[in-house]
Every structure is written in structure tokens, then in C-alpha cells.
Amino acid sequence: MTEQTASDLYLDLMAAVLTRYGFEGSNNTVNVSTGSYAGYLWDMLRDELGDGSVRLTRTGKFNAAKRAEGKDWPADAETMVGLRRLTNIRTCVETALADGVPGDLIETGAWRGGSTIYMRAILAAHQVTDRVVWVADSFQGLPKPDARRYPEDAGDQHYTRDELAVSQEQVRENFKRYNLLDEQVRFLPGWFEDTLPGAPIESLALLRLDGDMYGSTMVALDNLYDKVGSGGFVVVDDFGAVGACARAIEDFRSKRGITEPIEKIDWTGVFWRKS
Length: 275
Hints:
By secondary structure, the chain is of the alpha/beta class. It has 2 domains: 6-69, no CATH class; 82-273, 3-Layer(aba) Sandwich (Rossmann fold). It contains 9 helices and 9 strands. The strands form 2 sheets. The chain has a 7-stranded mixed sheet, with helices on both faces. The chain has a two-stranded antiparallel ribbon with strand order 1-2. Helix 1 (6-19) packs antiparallel against helix 5 (114-125), helix 4 runs parallel beside helix 5 (114-125) and helix 8 (214-224) packs parallel to helix 9 (243-256).
């Protein structure tokens, strides 16, 4: 058995708890298709209850493979990205630290904050005090598609999913749960097109994109990519899951002449290292 350091044990445990890997077997969020009869009944029930925080869950056995890949939707976990994408965050941050790549860490599209909580945990484990974790999110769900500016988003229904809207206060409480809310965590609340152009970020070692939509992905890249320094990382959460997101990445890379190879993390996540 390979000997693990205290930092390894801490970060491994954090990843397991943030994903509820092995801790949650009977609470998986049910995705109800928008426009279906089940979706209609579910909307009626939520309207009657008047509580957007109500969720529909399904009992079942814990599936380790799905949770590792982020292929199920844990009802209570701070992240749905799974273990492999959290491992990628750790690898990127630790590589940047070891190689002396300057800059902060950001996720654009934070949901319950799990990935950014893990970023802060990595900095804490390595006793890094001169970098900031930026949490960029509307904290009210995804925007309605702007098909005029971004025709690739026409018909997108993410904005109808109330379960994707997590308040800033709830995300702050999630950070507090792990004793990781401090001056090295900063929030950028609002729509990306309003917050990212003037964000007070000088440089980035890690840019993690989780905006799902073409427009959200492109706005983040247009405003933040040039702040990623040489040796820094760009991670895309939705490349394999959302076609519009993948097109935004491909269009941006083509427009900017980016030739660094895209590397696969799991079934949906990808990344590349900026040279």
C-alpha cells in the first residue's frame, strides 16, 4: 500500500464527501423532461407547494461507477461532477503550483459550489495563501437563450430548471460547512456578460468552464482566456454533454488559432494546457 501524506488523505476525503461517494445511496435527483406529462405534473406540484427548493428523488442503490463519472445527480452533494473531474481539478492546480504558474482559480458556473470548495481545499492543503478562488455564477440559474446573438442556444431549456438555481448564501454556507470560507474566496454574482468583463482578476492558473450553454461558454472565454498564463489550464465541464458548449469551444479555438490538444477527462469533461 502506497503511503499517503496528510494532504492526500484530506483531499481524497474532501472529494469523496463533496460528491457523497459512498455516503449516499438512496437519494438521487430525478430529471423530469420539460414538456412531458410527468414534467407538467411536477410543475403543477411545485406551483402548488410554492417552494422552488422541492426536489424529486429516487431510491436506489449507490452506483460507484456512475458517481465516479458524474453520471448521476446526487441529491445532497455539493457537486455533481464526480470523482474523475474533481481529480482533474486537483491535478491541474497541483501541477500549476509545482511549475510556478502564476494566477488565481475560477469556475464560471458554480451550482452548489463543490468544485470551487475543492479548489480552496487544495490551496489549504498546500498552505497557499497568495491565490484566490473566484466563484462566478448568477446564483439564479441559467439565462434564457439569446438566439439572436447565439443561435446555437435556440431552444435551450436550462433556464426552466429551478434546481440549477442555488443562492449565493447557500453556496457560502456550503463553504462554511468545510471551514473554507475566507478572504481567499471571492464571489462574482450576476450574469457573466455583466460580471466577467470588469472582474478584478489579474491572472489565472485555472479557468474552469461550467456554463452549459454556447453563450455562457463564449462570454467566459472572451473575457477570461487571455488572463490564463503560460502553463495554465482551461477545463470544460460540459463538452461531451452539451453540443452547444462543444461548438463554443471549437469556434473559440478556431477563431484564436489554439492548437494545444484537447484531452479527455471522462465522458463529458475535457481540458487543455495553455502554452
